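Q: What would this chain look like folded?
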Amino acid sequence: MDNDGELLAVDEQLQEDRPEQQSEAETVSKAQRIVLELNGDNTKRVIDGNEFVMVLGYAPWCARSAELMPRFAEAATALKEIGSSVLMAKIDGDRYSKIASELEIKGFPTLLLFVNGTSLTYNGGSSAEDIVIGCKRRLNFEGSENNEFVKAAKSDDEIQFVETSDSNVAKLLFPDLKTNNVFIGLVKTEAERYTVYDGSYKMEKILEFLGSNKFPLITKLTETNTVWVYSSPVKLQVMLFSKADDFLKLAQPLEDIARKYKSKLMFIYVDITNENLAMPFLTLFGIEAGNKTVVAAFDYNLNSKYLLESDPSLNSIEEFCSGLAHGTVSRYYRSEPVPDNENASIVTVVGKTFDELVLNSRKNVLLEVHTPWCMNCKALSKQVEKLAKHFKGFDNLVFARIDASANEHTKLQADDEYPMILLDKSGQKAKPLKLSTKLSAKDMAVFINEELKPKDGSAKDEL
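A: My prediction, written as structure tokens:
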């Protein structure tokens, strides 16, 4: 028997000979044998040779994989009993890591749905019932392959697609229907109940329309929908943190703002009294638990965040959203107050002044990056102070330091090791030079002098 035969590995004769009552373990074992085990030899042939293939990427050591396996097997059994043509398969992504990478399995467990050899995003649930429903939705549309609506239906396992040629039925679903020609519309149980699609009759455009419009005007974040929210194609997301009563006062005008920027911004409401949901976001802005309304935004494409720092009135929120949509709002960096650096031999840099004093400065900047809990930072600080005194006459060199625990910037990464010494040379700020902190003050002076040696060739490396 070849590997494909494992799909029908349930021995019907053996089943007849067994007693009617089976243990739960035997039932699970039988169900799991219905699922085809993929390997390095059969994966491509199976996926390319079947119209519908659902693949479970798992790892033997993964607890969540162990939880999903029996549900997946149960779904496979249910689909087999109704005569579904979906082939259910699994692959040990840890053992066959190269194949898993080619299938774009990036974590465990992962569910993938292949239609005619093409991998499609699976956004359905992970219970046996959800998996069955997701697969059945694919098979409900067996129309012409040239039907772009049908192809879109096969490519989306989250939205229920309905097709009708009866105008009366169409008007029951979409009361504002004003045409007898081909029409596509989205119906939701939200404030924005009916949305008309006016794009080209192409699968890609239809799916793009659904991705941008399937969410409510304002989505309430819950413990169960975080993955769904993150799957939105709109990656610039405005988040309103407030108590439920305060949100109700803002909901209607906020929906108007959300409607205005629907294709550019996604609006999310988070109950600020739910600390498990709210605090992971608020702490990124240095905000402690409280009941005061906060408006912030995250751009997951640029890996940046923004904060409305004025009082969140309707006017300020709309202005904030307009600035986000047009790219005029400055990124937010956690920052200490701006210090007075007048007459300082070593300039103190904070999050708000990093661009001005380091990146946009026309001078060379030697930046010491430290934290209060760093064991070796104090010793290095003394060396930097000695260097600053030594190079005092160099007009093109500025000595600076920043506390990385209290200040943020994209140039300071969370996994950086401290202390750290960076030489940001004028005209080359995108590629700062990293000095070894094991160097003596004298060796650092030699290094700095070699990099910034004046045109007259004079050196100043004697400490």
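Residues 1-25, 142-146 have pLDDT under 50 and may be disordered.
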